[in-house]
Amino acid sequence: MVLKKRTATIRCSLVAQLALVFFLALATNSFAADLTINASNDTGNTTDTTALSRTTASDDILITTAANNTAVTHSTGDIVLSGGSNTMIVEHADAGNNSAITAKVNGTLTISAGTLTVRHVETSAANATAVLLEVTGATSVSGATTVDTSGTDQDAANSATLTLGGDATLTGAVSVTAQGSGNAGSDAIINFNGATNATGGVTLNSATGQAILNFSHTAANATFSGVIDGAADNEGDLNVTNATRTITFANNIGATQDLSLIAIGSAASAGNAAFTGSVDASTITLNAVEGDTSADFNGALTVGANDLTLDGGNASGEDATVTIAGNVLAENATSDILLDDNSGSASVTFDGSSAQSIATRIDGVGGAEGTVNVNNASGVTFEGEIGANQDIAAIVVGAADGANSIMNITDDSGATAWTLGNGGSTADTQVLNIDSDDGTLTVAGTIDGAATDTATINVTDTGAGAAGNAVTFSGIIGGTTAVETIAVGSSTLSGAAVFSANVSATNLTLTTGDAAGETATASFASGQTATITNITLTGGSANANQDATLTVTDAIVAATAISLDDDSGQAAIDVNTSADRAFGGTIDGAGTGEGALTVDDSDNAGAPNTVTFSGNVGGTNSLLSVSVGTDNATAGAAVFSGTLDAVTVAVGSGNDNAENSELTATGAITATTINVIATTANNSATATLDANGDVSATNINITGGTANAGADASLEAAGNVTATTEIQLDDNTGATAGALLVLNGSAAQTVTGTINGQGDGDGRIQNSNTAATVTFTGSIGATNDIEDIIIDANADTTFKSTVAVTEDFTVAAGTATTTIHGTVTIGDELTIGGTGNTVAIASTLGAGDTVFTTTNGGTVITDNDGNADVTLTMPSSFTSGTLTLVNDAADDLTNFADEFAVTDNQLTDYTVQINGGDNTILEVTASAKSAAAAAAELGVSEDAAVATQNAATAFQGDATLRDLLTSTLVSGGTAAKEAAETLQGSPAAMSAAGSAAVTATGTQVIAVGSSRMASLRTGTAFASAQQAGFAAGQDVLSKSVWFKPFVSFGDQNLRKGVAGYETDTYGGALGADVKIGNSTIGASFSYANTDVDSKGTENAQTDVDSYQGTIYADYTTETYYVEALVGFARNEINSSRTITLNNLTAQADYGSNQYMVNIGAGMPMEVEKNHFITPTASFQYTLVDNETYTETGAGAANLRIDQDEVHQALGVVGLKYHTNSTTAEGTLTPEIHAAATYDFAGDDAVSSSNFQGGGAVFEVAGADVVEFGGRIGAGLSFMPAAAQGLTVSANYDMWTKEDFVSHSANVQLRLDF
Question: Are strands 1079-1094 and 1101-1116 parallel, antiparallel or unpaired?
């Protein structure tokens, strides 16, 4: 190659944006180069791998065209311009030359102190040519780099391209100018194909053509530094087609003047870019048709007028993905992010580390296209609509596992599916915040939580001091996985939500704001189901208008627990339905008396539809109010399957309701006020409270309608009814309908409290309970008479107080028992129909009282056929005098006297008779029976009969016992007999504890002492089972200690009407004695416990602890002995007995003192060698002195008992046989004995008793004492030869008398020393 130095002249360009160095050259229309290459010399089309090195200052290189219309294609090796102020220019400048310039540096290009220019400045109007400089290696330019198409061709597409194949360091400013005015193809292009690209900033200047930057480095990831700006807004293109590699832009793009286009990926190649700084372009596209394409925006992103568009590829896996970490700005209101899945996917992820704001809209290109992911714990706020034109396919809040995320939306947003959470291994918290400050908005699509994450939806309106604009959720929430919490409103903001589809969540909260007028509302749409574990409504504190209201319109609510928290504002649930619906879960106030529940029928056509509440309402904390059908224009129907507790329970409104209103309660109802109000309109709509459980309130008001005969208000109760102040019945002014209290249970019912009309003659009471008795405890009509009382056939009724009706008191034909405790005043007719009814007069009425009185006359007793069709029972306390049964103001009652069959009881005879001058009084007289007659009827002793008669008087102050005694005596039979037997106390227990058991224990201890003295007597003749030593000729040991445990079992059978008993005694005696000459003196202490179980009806049980001390002595000669004992015992006695009348147990703790003396003698006789018979005789006297005591535990039926002293004078005559046998092991002595006994005192146990409730003293005697009895027994003792002074012995005795037998045994251990 021949190098020639020449001067080239170029024409002046008209483009003002050329670099300054070229401006200076063009001013003189000449540019002097040190090396010029063109087609007019022999160096124009050559390939040379030799490096060009220019080290002289201002030593330049020009590659250009010549006028010969020949293309220039030149390549060389490395080029180094290092002399200073060096310039390299590749240009097309010759007019009329339509040939291209292609210059290629097969190596590196280094301009250490100069500039690089690639330009097309031809002015010819007909030429379309290209200028290209390609550097295959690294490029380093310290000065400006310019790519320019400044030609003025009007028709040609002239381009200038700089392709940098290796790393590029363009330290100076980079200018890409497409200013050719002729053709849109006059582009100025830089292709960055290296891995590392550094610039001093790039300016893209587009006019007719485009200023373009292309990035396509596919060998590895690449970087680019330096800002990129348009020369003016919307100028310059940036294309990234680097296949699977990523280029990272380190600086802002379009920050000063936005670009026209950023295109990542194309129809020919995928692309991936990461933007560290801000980005602003009129159009941004991602095209994944050739593979996954992505863009990562880490700074602020401004979306221009032509949108950010993500196009998925034509095959699965060809995904277009954008990640945005900064704010997104919108050039105008129509700037959108558009997602087009195609067959791949299009997704945008917001994952900043600080709060982000998204000003653009986001849409699918078609319906259900694209995915929006939010992974930002500080929150991403979307100010534009999402899915406004086409729904997004999916929105995921918290798509990344292990991170919390917050999404804030302020405008309409729609996606086919929203997911809050990712279901990964980490439990994350994902939040969707919706702010309706700008107006009502709609959130479309399903919304689900994720299995391991906590999903929260917050709905608020940040506008101050007003109710929130409504947020409508059109899709199902929690259909696949329930969300954790939906919060409507907050402690500082109002909120409003409308749920148009099913909702499933753990928590739903409605919280009012902190300013007046800030409310919280939510509504469930028709036909939908809300499955929510906990619902909490909180009223506001600023003023009374701050209500938290949940409206359920024809929807199904399946909740677990609902809490209503009132403050100044109210927490309220409004249920409106046009179909039968279910409402699950408990409903409670946050505190007592908080929250309102209202149920109304939304269509007001035909019968009202029913809402069934399955849980308790007010079960933990009562509500302020529960209202059913209280809207002025609609009725309502509700079923409460659990308990219901509210300050006010209201049914019906008393206004223009065409339908019937009904509240049905399965469980108990508790309230301060219950209002049941029928319509006041001209129709027959009713109001009914159907209570299947108990009803309890302070006031119960039942108000009938005013204009129509059918407009009744009724409380129909199947359980107990309690009104601590009053039940008021109001037929209403001028009403032909009325207020009704209906008792219709299937078990016993009690109505507690007074019942009055609102005015005289208002209201009716009807007893329809045929299964058990209905009892009215309070007065009826005491303040204002009610109208009627109706007792249905076979409906038992008890009136515990006075009754007053202005019209009729009717007992229908049947077998009902009507029990009257107070006077019944009747304005019109008393009717007792049919055959088989019973009128029972309670014990509160007696001589001198009146049962029924009619003020206007009109008594009808059955059929007036002369037969006793009505049974009349009288109280047990009415034993004498006259009782007025009926006092009729006008009618002659003569013919009704024989309609009553008066039932005498076991204590009294009764007679019904006519009295009064005009025969208008029907009365009953009473005559007491004798004790003998009463005993005969009851089948008990006279003592028991007298006790029962006294009980009738004593129980006057105890209504329960009084009524029980009356009903028991009326029923008679076994119940009456057992009641009489148990009322008198326990003769069996008294006999046992007062005499037999106690004296038997004392006798046992005396026997222990007597046998002890027998064991000390010397001589063979006196040997016994207790002694053997003297028979063997052993020495006398004068001192002894001994211990003797003993047991005894006794069984007394029924004797002359007094029940028997069984006794068990366990005890032991410990003693010591000394022998002085022929005498022995000793002392002992014993303890015994005796259990006594009565065989009587009263099931009496007595426990006796006996502590006894004894002193004993004897005198023995060769032929006889005499002995004496003196003892004292203290007995601690616990007793209990059952009174069958009320199944109560009467208990007592008391004591007794016991005194004992015994004298005995015996004379042994040898009938055969070593065989002896000893006649014996003794006399024992015992005195038992019992304390007076009063029972506890049985109320008026407790007895105060004063027992007489018990005396026993027991004479005993008997024989004893003994012998002994001595061997090497020791001496064995067997013995048998028998005796006859006779009690000379024969003292029966007798007590004087009276009831704690009052009455006369009566006596109760125990079983009579059998004087004669007999004893037999045997004993055996052994004195081992190896243990001198030790004796072991055992004895058994049986004592029998008529109807009595006892068995006792003891073992003795004795040590003589």
Answer: antiparallel
Q: How far apart are CA 122 and CA 92, in angstroms?
A: 6
Between CA 964 and CA 985 the distance in angstroms is 18
Q: What is the pLDDT of residue 68?
A: 53
The C-alpha atoms of residue 977 and residue 980 are separated, in whole angstroms, by 5
Residue in 928, 489, 1286, 505 with CA at minimum distance from that of residue 497: 489
List the alpha helices (DSSP H) in 783-845: none
Alpha carbon of 1040 to those of 527, 1109, 1268: distances in Å? Answer: 101, 18, 36
Give me the count of residues in the chain. 1313
Cα–Cα distance between 837 and 815 in angstroms, integer? Answer: 4
Cα Rg of the chain (Å, integer):
59
Instruction: Report the alpha-carbon distance of residue 1092 to residue 999 in Å, rounded.
Output: 13
- Between CA 648 and CA 945 the distance in angstroms is 54
How far apart are the C-alpha atoms of 679 and 866, rounded to whole Å? 48
First to last CA, the chain: 155
Nearest to 434 by CA among 487, 502, 355: 487
> 91 Cβ partners below 8 Å, 6+ apart?
10, 62, 63, 64, 65, 101, 117, 118, 119, 120, 121, 131
DSSP bridge partners of 1158: 1125, 1180
pLDDT at 1019: 46
Positions in the chain whose pLDDT score sits under 70: 1-58, 65-71, 94-97, 123-128, 151-156, 180-184, 604-606, 632-633, 654-658, 680-683, 707-709, 733-737, 862-866, 916-917, 986-1037, 1056-1057, 1262-1263
Pairing between β-strand 1039-1052 and β-strand 1061-1076 as defined by DSSP bridges:
antiparallel
Question: Which DSSP string corresponds to 415-456?
Answer: EEEEEE----SS--EEEEEEE-TTS-EEEEEEEEE-TTSEEE
Q: Which residues contact 1160 (CB under 8 A, 6 or more apart)?
A: 1010, 1122, 1123, 1124, 1176, 1177, 1178, 1179, 1212
Tokens 């906990």: give the residue.
Answer: 534
> What are 1073's strand-pairing partners?
1040, 1082
- List the Cα angle 670/674/677 in 5-degree steps: 150
Structure-token match 């079983």, residue found = 1263
Q: Which helix (H) or strand (E) holds 1004?
A: helix 997-1014
Please report how the helices 942-954 and 931-938 are oriented relative to each other, as an axis angle in degrees rounded to 10: 100
Between helix 973-983 and helix 931-938 the angle, nearest 10°, is 130
Three-class SS state of 412? coil
Q: Within its chain, how far is the Cα of 1239 from the centroid?
A: 74
Select from 392, 474, 489 the least CA-distant residue to 433. Answer: 489
Measured in degrees and rounded to the nearest 5, phi and psi for residue 26 equal: -70, -20
Q: What angle do CA 277, 278, 280 make, to 5 degrees?
A: 145
Of 411, 276, 290, 313, nearest to 357 by C-alpha is 411
The identity of residue 1145, as a single letter, is T
- Least Cα distance to 713 among 741, 689, 735, 739 occurs for 739
The pLDDT value given to residue 2:
28
Within 10 Å of residue 707's Cβ, how many Cβ atoms? 17
- 């400013």: which residue's tokens? 173
Dist CA 1149 CA 1020 (whole Å) = 50
Angle at 1109 between CA 1106 and CA 1114, to 5 degrees: 135
The predicted pLDDT at position 719 comes to 96
| Tokens encoding 259 | 């670009």
DSSP state of 849: -
Hunting for tokens 């329960």 — which residue is that?
Answer: 960
How many beta carbons lie within 10 A of that of residue 293, not counting itself? 35
Helix axis angle for 973-983 and 959-971, nearest 10°, is 130
User: Phi/psi at 1097 (nearest 5 deg)?
Assistant: -60, -30
pLDDT value of position 450:
92
Helix or strand (DSSP H, E) at 974: helix 973-983
